[in-house]
Amino acid sequence: KPEGATAEMVRTFEKGLGQYKAQQWDEAIQSFEAVRLSHKPNDYASTLYIQRCQEMTAPPPGPDWAGAYTMTTK
Fold this sequence. Notes:
Number of helices: 3
Strand content: under 5%
C-alpha cells in the first residue's frame, strides 16, 4: 500500500479521475496538474488526462457519456 507522498499522489490522481468521469473538466485539470506540480512533473497519465479534459470541453460529450475516449489519430 503506498505511503506518504506516493499515497497523496494516488489520492489526487483518483480524485481527478472521478472528476473526469463526472465531466467536471476544470476541476479534473486542477487535480491532474496538482499531481504533476507536487509529485511527478513528467507524469504521462496526468498529462494525457489534462489533454483529454481540454478536448472534451468543446463540445462536451453529453449526459449519457460513459467515460470512454475515442482516439481520432494514430
